[in-house]
Specification:
GO terms for molecular function: sulfotransferase activity. The chain has 340 residues and is α/β, with parallel strands linked by helices. It is built from 16 helices and nine strands. Strand 3 and strand 4 form a beta hairpin.
């Protein structure tokens, strides 16, 4: 891959092929840039976003480390922001007909497909856009003190994030293998990697958007500096009080629920529409697909503490120790998740 990356804060472009390479996270090839690992194909999109994307003051960015509540946050934010046009009980609500990832697109993905185009220009304001980019790599036009747009971040216990990522990676590898088997010309088939192999990579930060802990802490620090522009949510707290967190989300986005909406239970309706069980059972999420995986792959358990059903106590203690050491002195700590 010979493409170059142009950074808005670097004098020299970066050649993707010159970046450190990780080939063990199948079916992806990862490259390290700015201290984080990314799928090789996404890096030109990140560069194009930094160089060309023009944010609007009313934009709301939904940020997350992969497999940390991304799909749920997309659904909740979309339903909240667009409830005037699409009441949550409406039988033709977009979330009943489309996957949340089709309703809220990732910022860097269309730019990776065509770095010169702006796939978001035609969207009416306020735009709700997602990203897995860490806070330091967001365009300065988004993070600067005078920027008007807002960022909502959801974080998750590293152990649960790891387990969810490993299980999702197995599904994407299986999908890639099936696609390769159907090709007219034979090509290498990704071999699923073991949990132990995935764990070593995760502990070393070698996973999409990894390492996870600086990804999370970068947004936490942003929320401490600019609380009016960066909302930091914890997945575990959202599970405990989904309605309260939807209210918080609506207020932050500038569309707080009115007294009439509160009386009518609109926030509760949004939570019910976007629940893991409701989304999982919708036809589009049972039979539809993204380019790289079936929609059903995005809906598993949606709980906190499921790591205890997959990881040994020794693995959990090791990862906890790595994270604690890395975050020492930062002022941030992950909330302890309850075991299932």
């Amino acid at each position: 891959m010979a493409a170059s990356i142009g950074d808005d804060d670097l004098a020299e472009p970066i050649v993707v092929s010159s970046l450190p390479l990780e080939t063990r996270f199948l079916p992806l090839q990862l490259r390290q840039h700015g201290g984080f690992w990314f799928p090789e194909t996404i890096l030109p999109g990140i560069a194009a976003v930094r160089a060309r994307f023009a944010p609007r003051p009313s934009d709301v960015f939904l940020a997350s480390f992969p497999k940390s509540g991304t799909t749920w946050l997309k659904a909740l934010a979309f339903a909240t922001a667009h409830r005037a046009d699409h009441p949550p009980r409406a039988p033709d609500h977009p979330l009943r007909l489309r996957n949340p990832h089709d309703c809220v697109e990732f910022l860097e993905v269309p730019y990776a497909l065509d770095p010169t185009a702006d796939a978001f220009a035609a969207l009416p304001s306020p735009r709700v856009i997602a990203t897995h980019m860490p806070y330091p790599l967001l365009p300065e036009r988004v993070t600067a003190e005078g920027a008007g747009c807002k960022v909502v971040y959801v974080c998750r216990d590293p152990k649960d994030a790891f387990v969810s990522m490993w299980l999702f990676a197995k599904k994407t590898a299986a999908a890639a293998a099936a696609e390769a088997a159907n090709d007219d010309e034979p090509r290498p088939v990704p071999t699923p990697f073991s949990m132990e192999e995935a764990f070593e990579l995760f502990c070393d930060g070698r996973c999409p958007a990894g390492p996870q802990w600086p990804h999370v802490s970068s947004y936490w620090e942003g929320s401490q500096r600019r609380p009016e522009k960066v909302l930091f949510l914890r997945y575990e707290e959202m599970l405990r009080d989904p309605v309260g967190n939807v209210r918080k989300l609506a207020e932050f986005m500038g569309c707080a629920f009115s007294e009439e909406e509160e009386a009518a239970g609109v926030a509760r309706d949004i939570v019910e529409l976007c629940s893991i069980d409701a989304l999982k059972n919708m036809e589009v999420n049972q039979s539809g697909a993204q380019e790289y995986v079936k929609n059903e792959a995005f809906f598993r358990k949606g709980v906190a503490g499921d790591w205890s059903n997959h990881m040994t106590p020794a693995m959990a203690a090791r990862l906890d120790g790595i994270v604690e050491d890395a975050l020492q002195g930062s002022g941030f700590a992950f909330a302890a998740a309850e075991s299932t």
